[in-house]
Please model this.
Amino acid sequence: MHKQTASSQWLSYFRAHKLREPSWESTDSLPLPIGAIASLHDFQRGEKSEGHHFSKLADKYAEDNHDPAYAASVRHLIREENHHAYLLERYLIQSQQQPAEASGLDQIFRFLRHALSLQGTISVLVSAEILALVYYSALEQATSCPALKRLCVIIYEDELAHIRFQMQQLHRMRVKSKRRGVAEFLHTTLYFGTSLALWLRHHRFFRHNGLPLSIYMNRVGKVWQWASQQTSSASSTDQTNIPKTANSSEKVRLLL
Model:
């Protein structure tokens, strides 16, 4: 019996995974948590991208490594990230808030992604996805709006799968490299540097919702530790680390 590659298993997952929405009728008129609007704007812009550069790099990797399922999976991932942006935009509009047209933090991330190789691009993207777990967990706990709570859970669960997919791909690329240690050091530095920049930019939101810098960085470290362990099926075809549905992933919020 022919065994699927890890990329083809991920492609099966992405094809089966349905895009979800909260019940928009449950959007209420209660004020958003302090500092939430500015942070929602940053994440809304960060989720929205046509992904031309990422897709081009993925196509080249797929061609060089005879792995067309990887490039197809990347396109599904980009589609899901844009769906997240749509959810955030719709929530903002229904809350009588204007969606963001630009974000300084997002512009920095876009510059880095377009300046780097596939490995560097993935490192930038997955760093943002890991930090999204901390942010959406905090936002879900801070809001009393049922629609926003559900929106946070949807994105949170999707990001669990995205992080696994991205970290496994990084492992496959790094394990063959003589500069693996350097790449992992740079990625770690990028992640924790970005974590600090995110807190400084949105300290009003984090502080008012129970995440002063010390607690925030502790959570950031725990989620990074979890993400760094998501490489067990990168070189194998077992299904233990590829969720069949978004809800099959263990609750990382227990680490938070």
